[in-house]
Amino acid sequence: MELIVSNLSKRFGEKLILDRLSLSIESGEFISLVGSSGSGKSTILRLIAGLEHPSSGSISVDGTPVSGPGPDRGMVFQKYSLYPWLNAAANVAFGMRLQRMKPTEIRERTAYFLEVVGLSEAANKLPRELSGGMQQRVAIARALATNPSILLLDEPFGALDLQIRESMQDFLHKLWQRTGLTVLLITHDVEEALVLAQRVHVLAPNPGRIVRSLEVDLNKSDLDQLRLSSNFLALRRSLSRTMRELEPSLC
Amino acid sequence: MTVTAAPASQERCSGLFPLFTLGAMPSRAVRGRLQVASLLVPLLIWTAVASFGLVDEKFLPSPQTVFRSLASMAESGILFQDIVASTGRVFGGFLLATLLAVPIGICMGVYPAICALCEPLIAMLRYMPAAAFIPLLIIYLGIGEEPKIALIFLGTIYFNILMVMDAVKFVPKELIETTLTLGGRSRQVLVQVVARYSLPSIIDTLRINIATSWNLVVVAELVAAEVGLGKRIQLAQRFFRTDQIFAELIVLGLIGFAIDMGFRLLLRLSCKWAV
Fold it and tell me: CB distance B183–A80 less than 8 Å?
C-alpha cells in the first residue's frame, strides 16, 4: 500500500483551504498531521476519504486515483460515529453487511475485531450504554472489519476526557503494533501526534500547507515513560513553538 | 388533586410553588395524579353544571344521559358501523399519504436539488385548505368513499412530507459519511441509515398529523355520507339530540387518544434506542 498526495489544493468558493500539499505514506506507517483550526487538516482527510473532490492535484492509493469514498480507506470521526440503533457487534458488522460478505464470515470477523479492541464483553450493548472511549473503539473495529489499506482518524479522541484520551492512545499504539496497520491521524494535540506517529507534519493555517515535517525517532516501548522523557519533552516544546509562531494573533 | 399530590414531592420541595420551577421534574406519582386530574376535573365540572341545572338540558345533557345514549347506540350496532366507516377512511387516506410522503420527504431532506424543486410547490399547496377541495373532489370522484379518502390524503400529505424532510435533516452528516466510507451505496445509505435514524421522528410526525385526518373525515362526512361518526353528528343535530352529539364527540376523542397511544407504543417497541 502506498498513499500519494501530490500538489493537492482545495478551494471552497473563493477561499483557498489547502495550498499545493504533498505527502506520501508507505504501508504500515503511522503518520500524523497536526494543525490548529483553520489549517484544513480535516479537509485533507475528507479528500483522501473521497468525501470531497480536490480543486487541483491528485490522490492515489496503490497507483489508483481516488474518485470517491470506499472501504479501502476506513474513516473514524470524532463524534456521532456509531449507529445508535445497533449494538456494538452489529455496528462492527455493518460495513461487512453493506458489502454482502458471507454471514459466517461476518460473524467470525465481528467477534475477532471486537476482541482486538477489547470489547467482546460489550457486544450486545447499544452505543448509548458505552462510554465515549468504548464507542470510539467500536468505530475503529468497524472501520478495520472491512479490511481497509489505510485507517483515517479525524481527531478520534478529541471529545474524550484527558485520562481516557491517554489510555486510548496506548490502545491505538498497541493496535498499530499488533496489526501492522497504515494510519493517518489528524489531531490538534502535539503530544498525541508525537506519542503515536512515526512522522509528524505540521500544518499552517490560511491556507493550509505543510510547514514542518519531523521524524519521531523515540523509544516507544513504554508510552508512560515516553511522555516524561526529556527527548520527548524537547520535541514537544519545539513543535508547540512552531505551532504558536503560526498563530501570532491567537490571543 | 394537586394539593394531595404535594406530599409525594416533599423531599425535593414543599408546597405547590416548586412545581413551576423551570427545569424541575416532579416525581412519577405526582405527574400521574396530575394526568388523572386533567380528565377528572372537567368531568366533575360538567356533572356539577348539569346536575344543578345551570344550563338547559337540551343544550348541555348530563354525563349520565350521554353515556345512556352511547350505550344504546353501541347496542344497536350503529356506533360500531360508524367507527368502522370513519376509521377506515382515516386509515385509507392517511396510509396513502404516508406511503408517498416518507420517500419524498427523505429525498427532499437528503438532496438539496430535489428540495429546491419541490419545496415551493408543496409550501403553497399546504396553505390551500383541504376542505376547499371538496367540491372538486365530488366533481372528479363522485360521492362514494373515494373523495373522502382523497380529502384526507390531500389534507395530510404535505404536512407529512415537510415534517419528514425536517426530521431527515437531523441525521448527523458523520453517520452518512461513515456509511459511504464503509462502502455503502446511495440506496443503502438512504434506507439503512437515513430512514432508520429518522424513524423515531417519522413515527412522531405521523402521530401528530393523523389528528388532522380525524378533523377532515368529519368534514367529509358532513358533506356526503351514509354512515360515519361525522354523519351521525349531523343527523343528531336534525333531531336536536345533543346527547348523541356529545356521545359521538367523546367517541371521536377516545379513538384519537387510542391512536395516539398506539403510535407511542409503536415508537417504544420499534425504536428502543431512542426512548
Answer: no
